[in-house]
Design a protein that fits this description.
Elements lengths: L1 E2 L5 H10 L4 H12 L14 H10 E2 L4 E7 L5 E6 L5 E9 L2 E5 L3 E2 L17 E2 L2 H16 L7 E4 L9 H12 L11 E5 L3 H10 L4 E5 L5 H7 L2 H4 L2 H14 L4 E7 L7 H11 L4 E7 L13 H13 L4 E3 L13 H12 L2
Parallel strand pairs: 1-2, 6-9, 9-10, 10-11, 11-12, 12-13, 13-14
Antiparallel strand pairs: 3-4, 4-5, 5-6, 7-8
Helix pairs in contact: 1-2, 4-5, 6-9
Bound molecules: S-adenosyl-L-homocysteine.
C-alpha cells in the first residue's frame, strides 16, 4: 500500500482529483501531515468520514519504528529505524552554529562499493520510497518539536547513493522544501553524489536551488579507480565535464568532498593535481576527517596533517574547509550504527 507521505504537494492534489474530490482536499491532507503532523488519518477532522474511509482503504502512514537512539556528548543524535519490511536504516541529527541538520538515508545498503565506506559493507537491498525519506525528517522534527526547535538543514548523505534513486529523492525533497510542507529552504538542502554522471546532467537541467556536493576523494584516475569503483564507469574527465555543465546551467557554488586518508591521497602531488582539476570552477573543497571503519583498513590523518594539506591547497588558490567531526564518541562513521546492529543480529543477540 502506498503511504500518504509518498506524495509531494502537486501529486497530492492529483490524487484528490483521481478520487473525484476537489483539488483542495489534497491541500488539506498535506497540511494535516506537515503542519499539524498528525499520526493517523482519523485525526484529519475536517475531512468527511467517507473521505477518511477512502483514504484508509488506499493509503497508510507507514511509521518508522525506532530501534536505537544514541546521543553524543556534542549533541549529535543517531537514530536507528526499522522500516515496514524490517530493513534497518540510520538518520543523524547534527547541531551547528547555524542550526540543526539531518543526514538522511536514501537506500537500504549501497552498491557503490567505495573502498573506505561502511555503507557498502551491505549491498543495496532496495531504494527508499519518498515517504520513507520524508518520515525520517518528520520523526526527527517531532523529537525537536518537544524542545520548540526545528530542523533548518538537510543533507542527503546517509547510506546510499541519492542519484541511484533519483526520482524518489527529488520527490522527497520537494515535499520537505514546500512551504506548505516542512518549509526547509532549498539552499539549506544538500545532495551528495559519488559521481553518477548522467544524473548530474539531469540535475543540472532542473535548475533547483539545492546544493550539490561531489564526493571526489582522489584527484587522478589511478587512485580514484582504487577508492571508488564508480570511476571505472565515469572517470574524472567525464565527471568534470558534467561539473562544468552544472556550472554553466546553475549559478551555484559546488562542494567537493575529500576524505583525507593517511598515506593514500594526502601528499603534495595530490594538492597540485586537485588545484589543476578544479581550476576555474566556482567550488570549494570540504576536507573530511576519516571515521575509521574496522573492516576497511584505512587511517585518517591527524589535525596537524590536515592543516598542512589545507594550507597547501589554499596557497594553490583553492578554497577549502576542514569538516568538523560530529558524534565521534558514538560510532560516527556513516552507516556504522546500522552495521553494528547487523553484526549483533548475525551473532544472534
Ligand atoms: N553516496 C553519496 C552520499 C553518501 S556518503 C556520496 O558518495 O556522496 C556521504 C559522504 O561521506 C561522502 O562524501 C562519502 O564519501 C563520505 N564518507 C563515507 N564513509 C566515510 C567515513 N568512514 N568517514 C568519513 N566520510 C565518509
Amino acid at each position: 500500500m502506498k503511504s500518504l507521505y509518498d506524495f509531494n504537494y502537486d501529486q497530492m492534489s492529483e490524487m484528490a482529483l483521481e478520487h473525484g474530490w476537489k483539488k483542495f482536499r489534497g491541500h488539506q491532507i498535506f497540511q494535516w501531515l506537515y503542519r499539524k503532523r498528525v499520526t493517523s488519518i482519523d485525526e484529519m477532522s475536517d475531512l468527511s468520514k467517507d473521505t477518511r474511509e477512502v483514504l484508509k482503504q488506499n493509503y497508510d502512514l507507514k511509521p518508522l519504528t525506532l530501534r536505537d537512539k544514541q546521543v553524543s556528548s556534542d549533541g549529535t543524535t543517531k537514530y536507528l529505524f526499522a522500516l515496514e519490511d524490517g530493513s534497518l536504516i540510520e538518520s543523524v541529527l547534527m547541531q551547528f552554529d547555524y542550526g540543526k541538520s539531518i543526514c538522511v538515508t536514501s537506500q537500504v545498503g549501497c552498491n557503490m562499493s567505495c573502498a573506505f565506506c561502511a555503507s557498502g559493507l551491505t549491498k543495496k537491498k532496495r531504494n527508499l520510497t519518498s515517504g520513507e525519506m520524508v518520515s525520517q525528517v518528520l520523526y526527527v522534527q517531532k523529537d525537536l518539536d518537544e524542545k520548540n526547535d526545528r530542523l533548518s538543514h538537510i543533507v542527503v548523505m546517509g547510506t546510499g547513493e541519492p542519484f541511484d534513486n533519483y526520482e524518489n529523492v527529488m520527490n522527497f525533497l520537494s515535499t520537505v522544501n514546500h512551504d506548505r510542507g516542512l518549509g526547509i529552504g532549498a539552499r539549506h538542502i544538500t545532495i551528495s553524489t559519488c559521481g553518477v554522471v548522467p544524473k548530474i546532467m539531469e540535475f543540472s537541467k532542473e535548475h533547483t536551488q539545492y546544493n550539490l556536493a561531489i564526493s571526489l576523494h582522489a584527484p587522478n584516475n589511478e587512485l580514484r579507480d582504487k577508492l571508488m569503483p564508480i570511476n571505472h564507469a565515469y572517470p574524472l574527465e567525464e565527471l568534470m565535464k558534467a561539473v562544468h555543465y552544472y556550472a554553466s546551467e546553475n549559478n551555484r557554488r559546488l562542494t567537493f568532498e575529500y576524505i583525507l586518508l593517511k598515506g593514500v591521497n594526502d601528499k603534495k602531488e595530490h594538492v597540485k593535481q586537485l588545484a589543476k582539476l578544479l581550476k576555474g570552477i566556482n567550488a570549494y573543497v570540504n576536507l573530511i576527517p576519516y571515521n575509521s571503519v574496522d573492516e576497511k583498513g584505512f587511517k585518517g590523518v591527524d589535525h596537524e596533517q590536515a592543516m598542512v594539506f589545507y594550507d597547501a591547497l589554499m596557497k594553490e588558490g583553492v578554497r577549502c574547509t576542514i569538516r568538523k567531526e560530529h558524534g565521534a564518541d558514538i560510532d560516527a562513521a556513516c552507516g556504522q550504527l546500522r552495521v553494528k546492529h547487523l553484526r549483533k543480529e548475525r551473532k544472534g543477540n
